[in-house]
Amino acid sequence: xxxxxxxxxxxxxxxxxxxxxxxxxxxxxxxxxxxxxxxxxxxxxxxxxxxxxxxxxxxxxxxxxxxxxxxxxxxxxxxxxxxxxxxxxxxxxxxxxxxxxxxxxxxxxxxxxxxxxxxxxxxxxxxxxxxxxxxxxxxxxxxxxxxxxxxxxxxxxxxxxxxxxxxxxxxxxxxxxxxxxxxxxxxxxxxxxxxxxxxxxxxxxxxxxxxxxxxxxxxxxxxxxxxxxxxxxxxxxxxxxxxxxxxxxxxxxxxxxxxxxxxxxxxxxxxxxxxxxxxxxxxxxxxxxxx
Length: 291
What we know:
Layout: E1 4-7, H1 17-32, E2 36-41, H2 53-63, E3 73-74, H3 79-92, E4 95-98, H4 102-108, E5 110-112, E6 115-117, E7 137-140, E8 147-151, E9 155-159, H5 161-164, E10 168-171, H6 179-189, E11 194-198, H7 205-214, E12 221-225, H8 250-260, H9 273-283
């Protein structure tokens, strides 16, 4: 298949420098290979979304010279597709309902690579009581068969899902679909061949590959970019109120993101955004990215 990449921000705030690095890496990787670059808005978590964030994100991308090739996909309009995938997994017998509270999980679980591992309490119950009024999440059964892949930046990766992560949620008790399910369904729907994103999602990739296999969906190639962190070593995020990039400073910000990704600095002055794009697309080399 021809290269198809994407940038998929959540509308929880304006784009910050870390977001710009992810957008730049995915965009240049697609353009270098004469591929398509898509934008997807991951708006399936309303409690975390900020009013006006979508238009602000899109305006910033346009002002920085990003050009997407197809209509923007909004995950909030794809709920029926996620439910269909969930129904397929229920039919396979790999899902179960969970009524455990966060407090109960924290009390019984052990720490894994991403916090508390769900201890499998409700997995042992063949049929949860329909009489209970507790909200029910939907969890996917995991195994300790290794899920391995080679990341083009970070190298060989392997994970034992049951031991490292535990049975994970695909639909929350409040009725919202989980990121892990939505991203797998949408990457397949959009024909994404190459995923270029931040390394904070590196440990999510085995879960997504596991889901892809269960749903008989293709697995893209992955490149995970190094994270931008603050002076305390914390990842920049919209939730932590990280400072947004400034449209009036587009060119310096793009140049800084280029250098952060380990790319060779231009041997000629780049005085406009259009000059930056022309030069950077021609000289992009993902092999120079630092792990």
